[in-house]
């Protein structure tokens, strides 16, 4: 009987940070050795971070990554870990074309062993790999102590045929994969179903190691796992945190032994945690320790402030109330209550004095006057950002952004927009979930997430409430003119969000939407709003992080587009 | 002897505007027939516009394009043009994968004839075609009245091998290509050299029809041409305007007869005209009739205002002088003179009153106070944009943007940035060229460009001067604090621009730059400025149109990037 212990090192890397990533690999290799592992597997492009986009094309960067991989192999041996097999992802070079390759190498005995290059280079949705890399064309079977290990990288297992199909004839004992698979709601089950098919295809257990953490506008959720060739789940690491999972392979056994299976969060907790992790890592990797944002008393800014407090602690959140002549007393109270609940800094900066001076010169009317209010607020938020070194966060949700219910250079100001992918109805659901969690004892910073691997319950919330109930329950309003309500301009959100999902996410045309059962008036209203907003947004770009994801997760559209459905 | 007359229809299309593009195809087909042509060739993706990005993935759009191609074939026949062979580009569908194809079809006898699908799908720099389209795999030789016509689309001729190599064995009489080739300085000669090689390869004359006009952040320069198999230039259409060129093929002749050869503009005229065409078409295709911009009296805003006047007439340009307590009298005079020269609307909006009210509440210092001035100006420019329906244009040049000498949500505000790809030294050169042209009688709107095919000399400039000489000659200053000069923070532009070209455009690392002969202090200063600016710009996105092109024409970089050269 041959027995081999695999460690699944689910870590959070940073693009371009070769030193930091190498140090983390070293740390987890030590942990794995301490647990008696023979092989430790890291996520896709561990050493370079992922996705690295056109940075891979820079020759100086590829040279530095190669040097760092060699340094790492040497250091591992010097630390007494030369016997360990350390599979890391990095960037290689195809010397024929001088193009980069997405590569797995194995560090062992102080050497960097020739690796495996990813075959299938995804080039859809958020992925641009075919643009950057040359495709690999070899299948690789590693032989470690007589165990035959087939390898594959991420997209290689999502496409039929290719390296996995070829491994089916290779009598492998295990399929070992490294992945950088971004979070999408429901993807845990999709990945598991896929792995079951691939394990059956190669007739061996499959190891799936995924990256965890936020990188730019993507969130990687971890959730690494192992499935047996009969589809039995053998191991599952927790989502959203760094983790070292273990899997013992017995090549003679008909069925492998089941190890630790982490619980899955409920759907609202999962999405809320993904948003917080994205913000937290965006701050960490871009060296921000705090955020600033406008607090209107409405639900969007309240939810974003709550997420920010969970990401960096309430004392690093700077909430700015910027009331105008149209702001209700209730809104101002709700903003103050939220700030008090999370322990945020809280300033009041009335905008009426600035508004009056501008209007003395400009005499604006209608929407131009409404936009002026939003833009004065944008200038104030950026003043806090510049003078205190804070990350300005934008508070727009997907329903608003899709319908153009937002002012460029106004409330859209910010370097990161944590809820841009959430429809308004989901904003309410997540707010209610966070309050339920608070009541159940999840304090500020108490989420199970990178940096809280041991499950600290966080800073308790006074009275067990995070988001003021009246912010959740009142009718939404931008408060840019007297008595304004969102429902003056938009259909009710329950209906609007259903139409948006069909029109934007599922690309239904007008005829499809009518066949979906939506009434003609609503369809035409929403299509007109969305088309106009998309056109406006394209005219005055809000920047890739807001537009690319707010308006359909996977669309890259021309600015000029005269086509109408 | 077989004789065939080809018409090269170099036209300006609009993405998504199936109706407008079809009408223009119809118009040029009539012109071609009137000139006795047998075959008329249009640019790549004529009917849909180019580049259409992910719009091609929308099934409703592909259906509409197919219907429109059929309508066009029917209408051509109804108009008595059924005998003409009309080669147009459009989007097709690969029914096996349900992916779009980049397709040439031939309209004849009231029918849409099966076409040719582009083989090589560029996926570098500004191109994303592999993301969108399925590649074609068939070579196509059309037989028209016994003449064998090989066809290819754009990138097919840029790659060795593939369809052109296969055509070498097909004894074709002519190689007919449709192209959507974006403008780059010097590309006229590159294209010609390439065509000479391909014509020799297939042993036949080659027809190169290129798109003309601005589309989003790209400019297509036209300059369609024909070369004989021995490399002789047989026809050349003018750059930057719509044109119907003619080429007579005699299949028995050893050498073909030379037709019209348009002059090439001088290098400064070429770049200036490309910038104006980009702005002009951005306005037209996004339905703006006028622009607004801040006029500081400096050279950047002066050049942009001059370009805007050439694009849409001085009476559609709204210049706003926004002096602060630090603005010199000379600057204010220069701004007023420029506005008067081009006949622009001119308003003075002092920012000191707003600045004082903000500062009463915020008490900012240093860079935060400087940014506040720029952002107050941004709010005012956007107020003009909103209340008058004008396109706000940003005036930053490439040297400033690369070094971070710009304020987000401040002077970077705008939907289009006409000189974002020009280094500062080029800004001065183009300003001097425009004044020389003005002195030589080129009035406002008098450029040879789409819409001015007949060469109208434009509106004469008073005194033959467009840009005030003192704007060109004075030392550059942002005037955000007393006595400030650009040279306080930046190396002299003559040197800076050379380092930027090497570091950004040619991706030279630190060691390369030292080997280039730049001194260590300058190299380190510029690298630090550029890296910091790129990081800041990625943190707070300025939007794709400013970032993507300002910072190297072909780079797509991650937001988070800890790598340092």
From TrEMBL, chains A, B:
Binding site for deamido-NAD(+): 371, 400, 536
Domain CN hydrolase: 4-251
Binding-site residues for ATP, renumbered to this chain: 294-301, 395
UniProt-listed Enzyme Commission number(s): 6.3.5.1
Pathway participation: Cofactor biosynthesis; NAD(+) biosynthesis; NAD(+) from deamido-NAD(+) (L-Gln route): step 1/1
Catalytic reactions on record: deamido-NAD(+) + L-glutamine + ATP + H2O = L-glutamate + AMP + diphosphate + NAD(+) + H(+)
Catalytic residues (positions): 44 (proton acceptor), 44 (proton acceptor), 118 (for glutaminase activity), 154 (nucleophile)
Record Pfam families: CN_hydrolase, NAD_synthase
Keywords on record: ATP-binding, Ligase, NAD, Nucleotide-binding
Entry binding sites for L-glutamine: 124, 181, 187
Origin: domain of life: Bacteria
Functional summary from the UniProt entry: Catalyzes the ATP-dependent amidation of deamido-NAD to form NAD. Uses L-glutamine as a nitrogen source.
HAMAP family: NadE_glutamine_dep (MF_02090)
Annotated family: In the C-terminal section; belongs to the NAD synthetase family. Belongs to the NAD synthetase family.
Protein name, as recorded: Glutamine-dependent NAD(+) synthetase
Organism: Bifidobacterium bifidum ATCC 29521 = JCM 1255 = DSM 20456
């Amino acid at each position: 009987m041959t027995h081999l212990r695999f460690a699944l090192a689910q870590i959070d890397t940073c693009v371009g940070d070769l030193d930091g990533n190498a140090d983390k690999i070293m740390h987890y290799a030590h942990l794995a050795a301490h647990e008696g592992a023979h092989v430790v597997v890291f996520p896709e492009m561990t050493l370079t971070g992922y996705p690295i986009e056109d940075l891979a094309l820079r020759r100086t960067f590829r040279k530095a990554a190669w040097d760092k991989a060699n340094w790492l192999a040497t250091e591992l041996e010097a630390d007494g870990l030369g016997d360990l097999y350390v599979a890391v992802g990095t960037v290689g070079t195809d010397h024929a074309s001088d193009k980069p390759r997405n590569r797995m190498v194995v560090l062992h005995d102080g050497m960097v062993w020739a690796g495996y290059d990813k075959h299938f280079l995804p080039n859809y949705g958020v992925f641009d790999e075919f643009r950057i890399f040359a495709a690999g064309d070899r299948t690789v079977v590693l032989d470690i102590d007589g165990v035959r290990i087939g390898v594959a990288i991420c997209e290689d297992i999502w496409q039929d045929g290719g390296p996995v199909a070829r491994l089916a004839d290779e009598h492998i004992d295990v399929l070992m994969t490294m992945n950088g698979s971004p979070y999408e709601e429901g993807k845990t089950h999709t990945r598991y179903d896929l792995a079951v098919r691939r394990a059956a295809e190669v007739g061996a257990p499959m190891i799936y190691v995924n990256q965890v953490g936020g990188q730019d506008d993507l969130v990687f959720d971890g959730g690494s796992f192992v499935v047996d060739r009969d589809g039995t789940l053998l191991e599952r690491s927790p989502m959203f945190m760094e983790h070292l999972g273990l899997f013992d392979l017995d090549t003679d056994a008909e069925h492998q032994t089941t190890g630790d299976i982490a619980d899955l969060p409920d759907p609202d907790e999962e999405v809320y945690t993904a948003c917080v992790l994205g913000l937290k890592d965006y701050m960490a990797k871009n060296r921000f320790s705090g955020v600033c944002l406008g607090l209107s008393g409405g639900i969007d800014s309240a939810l974003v402030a709550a997420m920010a407090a969970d990401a960096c602690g309430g004392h690093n959140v700077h909430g700015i109330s910027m009331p105008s002549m149209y702001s209700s007393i209730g809104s101002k109270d709700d903003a103050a209550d939220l700030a008090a609940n999370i322990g945020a800094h809280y300033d009041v900066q009335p905008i009426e004095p600035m508004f009056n001076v501008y209007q003395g010169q400009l005499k604006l009317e209608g929407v131009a006057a409404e936009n002026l209010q939003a833009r004065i607020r944008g200038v104030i938020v950026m003043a806090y950002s510049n003078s205190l070194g804070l990350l300005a966060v934008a508070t727009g949700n997907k329903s608003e952004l899709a319908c153009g219910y937002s002012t460029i250079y106004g409330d859209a100001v910010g370097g990161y927009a944590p809820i841009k992918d959430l429809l308004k109805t989901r904003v309410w659901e997540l707010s209610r979930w966070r309050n339920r969690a608070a009541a159940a004892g999840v304090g500020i910073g108490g989420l199970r997430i990178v940096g809280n691997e041991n499950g600290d319950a966080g800073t308790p919330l006074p009275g067990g409430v995070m988001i003021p109930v009246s912010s959740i329950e009142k009718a939404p309003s931008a408060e840019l003119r007297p008595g304004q309500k969102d429902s003056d301009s938009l259909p009710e959100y329950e209906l609007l969000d259903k139409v948006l999902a069909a029109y934007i996410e599922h690309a239904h045309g007008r005829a499809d939407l009518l066949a979906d059962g939506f009434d003609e008036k609503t369809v035409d209203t929403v299509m007109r709003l969305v088309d106009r907003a998309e056109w406006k947004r394209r005219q005055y770009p809000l920047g890739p992080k807001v537009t690319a994801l707010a308006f359909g997760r996977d669309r890259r559209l021309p600015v000029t587009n005269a086509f109408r459905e």
